[in-house]
Amino acid sequence: MPIKIVSPEITHRYETEGSFLIYKKLNFLEQKRLLYKHMSNGVIPEEESLELGYEVMEAMIVGWEGVVDDNDKSVKFSSEYISALPALTVMAFLEEVIMPEFVDMAGSVTDKKGKKREKEIKN
Prior knowledge:
By secondary structure, this protein is of the alpha+beta class. Helix content is 50%, strand content 14%.
């Protein structure tokens, strides 16, 4: 199986509340840096999770469609508006997009190390 990289040029779409957030994936080290910044004893405290969510979105979101202001007027994407996204949207993005990817990436690293160590022990 070939080695796959996380390409910053490839974008993905996340649908929420009739709108689309267009994002790029973060590589493992970028995710790790953001997550560990907010961790305490290996856990992200609840009071840190929203701040983490906004930071992650600022790093990932590169566009959007169907986002409107209080007057239902379409809002052109600008990274300065990410902080104005609703907290529930931010938390849903964090839980549905970022955390599963980070867990998968961390798990694959652990699995590979574990299998290698297992082979060493058997030999």
